[in-house]
Amino acid sequence: MSQNKLPQAAQWTTDRALKQVNSQPTGLSNQAVQTRQQQYGENALAGKRQTSLLEKFTAQFKDLMIIVLIVAAIIAAFTGEGIDAIIILLVVVLNAVFGVFQEAKAEQAINALQEMSAPNAHVLRNGATMTVKSDELVPGDIVLLEAGDIVPADLRLIEVASLQIEESALTGESVPVDKQLAPITDPSAGLGDLSDLAFMNSNVTYGRGTGVVVATGMQTQVGRIAGMLDRTQERKTPLQENLAHLGKVLTVLILVVAVIVFVVGMIRGNETLVNMLLTAISLAVAAIPEGLPAIVTITLALGTTRMARLNALVRRLPAVETLGSTDIIASDKTGTLTQNKMTVEKVIVDGDVLDAKQTAGATSEDDQGLLASLLLLNNDTKTIDDQLVGDPTETALVQYNIDHQVNPEDFLAAHPRVAEIPFDSERKLMTTVNQMNEANDQLWVTVKGAPDELLKRVTRIQSNGEISPMTDQLREQLLTINHQLAVQALRVLAFAYRPVTTIPAEMTSKQVEQDLIFTGFVGMIDPERPEVAGAVAEAKSAGIRPLMITGDHADTAKAIAVRLGIIDANDQAGVITGAQLDALSEAEFSDQVEQYSVYARVAPEHKVRIVNAWQQKGKVVAMTGDGVNDAPALKAADIGVGMGITGTEVSKGASDMVLADDNFSTIVVAVREGRKVFANIQKAIQYLLSANLGEVLTLFVMTMMGWQILAPVHILWINLVTDTFPAIALGLEPAEKNIMQQKPRGRSSNFLSGGVFGNIIYQGLLEGGLTLLVYWLALTFPVHANATQVHADALTMAFATLGLIQLFHAFNSKSIHGTIFTAQLFKNRAFNWAILAAFILLAATIAIPGFNGLFHVTTLSGFQWLIVLSAGVAMILIVEVVKLFQRMASRRH
Ligand code: ATP
After folding, report:
1. Domain count, the chain
2. Has the keyword Transcription regulation been applied to this entry (predicted)?
3. Domain check: are 329 and 388 in the same one?
4. Is the pLDDT of residue 549 over 90?
5. Cα Rg of the chain (Å, integer)
């Protein structure tokens, strides 16, 4: 078995690996990359093979009904109905062409979607770090890995720093593997034992590393495992599945009607066997809604294109549908609700709260100066091209020093860092150890972090230049100051230090972050994003509940939540902390979940509990996330929302939608689009199915009454003209005005809910009824004496009515419940063109002498056209009145 063979790359030393792929630690040259891209092709797993246009075209004829129709037409040709047969075949071919067009369009949009969500990789080329699309990697590329990255190709690692990678997609083992550099030569080693390699599509969960690409695309380990490829298969959306089911039910029903029409028609004896057969089959072909799945896909796909323009990149098609039914939007605070642009506002030393701007003139000797140095010592900000680069919380601290005429680079050069414990959002602390004088005999441990966490580890306090023991009373006073700042929406960080003589042997939190000397607080403001308050209000009016999730202090979180309108200032409950959440059992939390809108001091693992609790209440939950630890919550949510700017590749990979601008209001915009897409699909379905019902009804009654019946070409032509253009154009309708004033439609709703099923039935009956009425009028009040001419007129008028009434009805379908007489009536340009094109095609078959003979119809007089058009207008008026009553009834509810 080839995949059990030990990959050669695992046995190479790091130097050998670089030589083997002809690379070097500074990376490939651009030239080499280009040549290799040609040689090795894309670094991508082969997805589903794209079908050619010709294959799509022939696939259109695989439908049994179509084959039967063609066979019948050929038989007709031999029995003397040559022209009929040719026209039927032409219409069938035209139908297939439109089918291909629809499918190709849907496929295009889906491909564009995949293109947009392609992951990135960080590489070293020509000695410079750059970000490239992962599918552009070639063997020999040097890839830089850090926590949150998805490994973009198979790598032989050449440098690691606490690197851990989770490889469950390949090995099934969910515990991350510690990576190292020594070659693995044991021939019995499995994939999971190859700790010197990193595999494509696995997730970096901790640490850093560098590796050289040894295999790309289908040559990688995942590329070789055939089963993995199925993942690229498109999933059907629940809507598409529902539709497929409905399609089957309708097919059976329509076939039954077609058989009845055929049998009764034969008994009546007005038509030849072949003609009657053709009519019955044409009816089946026209009435079976085979175009519906394509229309749904196109509408969904066009929706995603529009959403992408509005900064919401949908990664999976079903997400569009789910978005529209969102009940809960749980959002991170920093960066999504706020701007993540921190500024130091307040400095607290010696128990005094000072305005940051007023603290100029501090010297390195006093406590203000001491605090200012701690801000720099414990800080990962880099200066690149005179720009501060790093976490905004930290860049703000450096900026504070710059504003006070301290040069951070000079200061840090004099006090280099020798050890550290990185920040993590569980501990909410960060520690560094720096050299404090040139003799190198004194080191400082400096710790910064959340005040509540840091104060637990403090034993002394520095105040007015003196160090004294920390008392419970002092601690209480400090926590009170912290509270006073937090309620003003400030993020408060606490700072402490401890001199030591040697670097601690174990850099663990327990060993190092203890016995500290408290020095002061800094209060920072992170302004809200200006558009968020409006978006929160819009979400609420749409019956959607926004939740805030944050690592920040409860008071800070509440203050911002109140400003944004997420909770009311008087709301005493509303806020819960991670610690309080930990104290609740699943059952208790599930009972109380509806009370809380703000989750403070929470860690990523709490997010999964929040999602689960709401889902148990039957709610559709959208949840944001950016870190590698957020992936489980993003997957658990109905809509995982990733961050395009600050998000890690792993979190984006776990998301259904990625926000290009990290902005909360974009989620609300996407929900609005999702609702619109769903509504438009409902409109298209209502339009198409009621039209089909109208056709079936007309033919059925005509047969039963022993009247002349519409010919196969009539039915097929109407179906072609009215099915294709208006239905697709309805998918492009703009959103109705009140779309964000309605409650979410609920998890169990489908496209026939909300009165659509009933509408299909009565509107179908109405279309058929009006057509039959026009036919009956033409027979009963003839304008000619010649009986043949009277019949020809009646049939032509029935044909014209059945076709035109559908075009009029397309206008009705612009709004399922609302009146169509609004400013939006002619807003949809594509729709206007579609109706015009359909009208011309229909009218041409009747009005052009000679041509109309092919369709077995005659020209109509102005008066006759007037009757036909009146039926169309009646269709609009009657449906408007019914809608009015429906609205009145629902208001009374
Ligand atoms: P949100 O959860 O709203 O997006 P966040 O992601 O910034 O906010 P965390 O990063 O988990 O939240 O931060 C939690 C707390 O940890 C902060 O309130 C702050 O007190 C502290 N903190 C944040 N960044 C640092 C840092 N770089 N060094 C030390 N402490 C920090």
Report:
1. 4
2. no
3. no
4. yes
5. 35
Centre of ligand 1 to C-alpha 475, Å, is 21
Range of the structural domain that residue 564 is part of: 312-339+529-662
* Ligand 1 site, CB within 6 A: 332-334, 391, 393-394, 423, 425, 428-430, 448-450, 491, 493, 550-552
Identity of the residue numbered 811:
F
Q: How confident is the model at residue 378 (pLDDT cuts 50, 70, 90)?
A: very high
Mutate-to-test residue for ligand 1 from 380, 388, 425, 490, highest number of ligand atoms within 8 A of CB? 425
How many whole angstroms separate alpha carbon 348 and alpha carbon 344? 11
- Which pLDDT tens digit goes with each residue over 218-235? 888 888 774 444 444 445
Question: 149, 332, 526, 793: which one is catalytic?
Answer: 332
Same-domain check for residues 146 and 283: no
Q: What percent of the chain has pLDDT over 90?
A: 58
Same domain (yes/no): 225, 317: no
Of 149, 133, 158, which is closest to residue 13 (Cα–Cα)? 158
In what helix (H) or strand (E) does residue 329 lie, and over which residues does it extend? strand 328-332
pLDDT, tens digit, for every residue of 419-443? 989 888 888 999 999 998 766 578 9
Instruction: Render pLDDT for 483-524 as a digit per residue (tens, 0 to 9).
Output: 999 999 999 999 999 999 888 888 889 999 999 999 999 999
CB 867, CB 768: distance < 8 Å: no
Q: What pLDDT does 438 receive?
A: 64
How many angstroms separate the alpha carbon of residue 593 from the centre of ligand 1?
A: 24
Ligand 1 atom 24 nearest Cα: 393
Nearest alpha carbon to residue 467 among 487, 443, 496, 445: 496
For ligand 1, atom 5, which residue shows the shortest CA distance? Answer: 551
Ligand 1: centre distance to CA 552 (Å): 6
Query: Which ligand 1 atom is nearest residue 337's CA?
Result: 3
pTM, rounded to two decimals: 0.84
332 in catalytic set: yes
Most confident range (mean pLDDT) of 360-369, 731-740, 762-771, 853-862 is: 762-771
Asked if residue 834 and residue 687 are part of one domain, the reply reads yes
User: pLDDT (tens digit, 9 = 90+) per residue, 641-677?
Assistant: 999 998 998 999 899 999 999 999 999 999 999 999 9
Cα–Cα separations (whole angstroms), residue 656 to 235, 323, 675: 13, 10, 16
- Burial class for 587, CB neighbours closer than 10 Å (0-12, 13-18, 19+): exposed
Q: Residue 425 C-alpha to ligand 1 middle, in angstroms?
A: 6
* Residue listed under structure tokens 């930290």: 394
Ligand 1 atom with the shortest distance to the CA of 601: 14
Distance (angstroms) between ligand 1 centre and the Cα of 728 equals 48
**Residue bearing the CA closest to ligand 1, atom 7:** 334
Sheet with strand 575-577: strands edge to edge: 312-314, 657-659, 639-643, 621-625, 328-332, 545-549, 598-600, 575-577
Query: What percent of the chain lies above the pLDDT cut of 70?
Result: 96
Query: How confident is residue 2, by pLDDT bands cut at 50, 70 and 90?
Result: very low
